[in-house]
Specification:
TIM Barrel; 8-stranded parallel beta barrel; alpha/beta
């Protein structure tokens, strides 16, 4: 391929991944793996969520995680702030010297799903975002603007693409660093992904779009490739393909596999294609194996079961 193309993967294991795990992972093991991710070459790492610990006990240690991780130069550490109170906690942590560098704002394109998740309709949520954006910028926090249910809603079915475009434009008024298109329950397919990103990039070619897929129906890696072919260079993934609807929180609307696209599989695929992720296949596998040890069960990684592609001859078969 000549000069290697570059893609950037945000590792979501520490937040979107763990929110679906009922077992409470010790803070020391969370920080251990986050530190290993940073040294392996991840440029962006989703570390925790400032959600209400009564609703999401997995993240009751949000401040402790951020306080204890080693800060590697050049690495951005992201935390989810679903409302103003969560953002205030992120700002307090930053002012104390251990806060995140990026904060995620999240809204579902489907208003019904948004009300289910946040108890806010769209108008109420956008009003809150305006207040939050002012605070975030005043405290030098980068905003990661995330749209959920982009390719379909588990409650309302199909989502009009025009609504995604309108909400993307609205997000731009908040001056985000990235806009994330989230496939909340794995409803997307390579064709709809290509059409969505093709239209968005044609309209706003200089925006940093992030593709965030869930692999519910086995189309996750194919969707990553469709986004890449459309010009996307930023992707969210999770070690072991874990993640999705928070464990034990509300009515279960996500059936089957809920997790993100598996980091190990995506990293190894890109590397075999000659595309640089900044992370070696060996490090991706080591991280995936350690993540499985921490959770205490095998996860949904193809590469961990078979290993990376071998390009050397096998003497024992000669």
């Amino acid at each position: 391929m000549g000069k290697r193309e570059r893609v950037y993967i945000c590792e979501c294991w520490g937040r979107d991944g763990l929110q679906n795990i009922a077992k409470i992972i010790p803070t020391a093991e969370k920080t251990e793996l986050i530190n290993k991710m940073a040294h392996a070459g991840y440029a962006r790492i989703e570390t925790t969520s400032f959600s209400n610990p009564k609703q999401l006990p997995q993240f009751a240690d949000a401040e402790d995680v951020l306080r204890r991780i080693e800060r590697v130069p050049g690495v951005c550490y992201k935390a989810t702030t679903i409302n103003e109170r969560a953002l205030d906690r992120a700002i307090a942590a930053k002012n104390a010297g251990y806060g995140p560098t990026e904060v995620t704002f999240m809204i579902s394109v489907s208003e019904r799903h948004n009300i289910f998740n946040t108890k806010l309709n769209h108008a109420e949520h956008w009003a809150q975002f305006e207040r939050m954006a002012e605070k975030a910028h005043a405290n030098d926090l980068k905003i990661i603007a995330t749209l959920g249910t982009v390719y379909g809603c588990p409650l309302d079915g199909d989502v009009p693409p025009e609504q995604v475009w309108r909400m993307t434009e609205k997000y731009l008024t908040l001056a985000p660093e990235y806009i994330v298109l989230g496939d909340t329950t794995g409803a997307g397919n390579p064709l709809t992904v290509k059409e969505m990103f093709g239209e968005l990039i044609a309209r706003r070619p200089h925006i940093k779009y992030v593709a965030h897929f869930h692999d519910t129906r086995g189309t996750g890696v194919a969707n990553v490739m469709a986004a890449f072919a459309s010009g996307v260079r930023y992707f969210d993934c999770s070690l072991g393909g874990i993640g999705g609807q928070p464990a034990g929180y509300g009515h279960v609307y996500h059936q089957g596999f809920s997790g993100n696209v598996c980091s190990e599989d995506v990293i190894c695929m890109f590397d075999e294609m000659g595309v640089d992720t900044g992370i070696s296949q060996e490090d991706a596998v080591a991280l995936g194996l350690r993540a499985e040890e921490i959770i205490g069960a095998p996860q949904r990684s193809n590469v961990l079961r078979c290993g990376p592609v071998s390009h050397a001859p096998k003497p024992e078969y000669e």
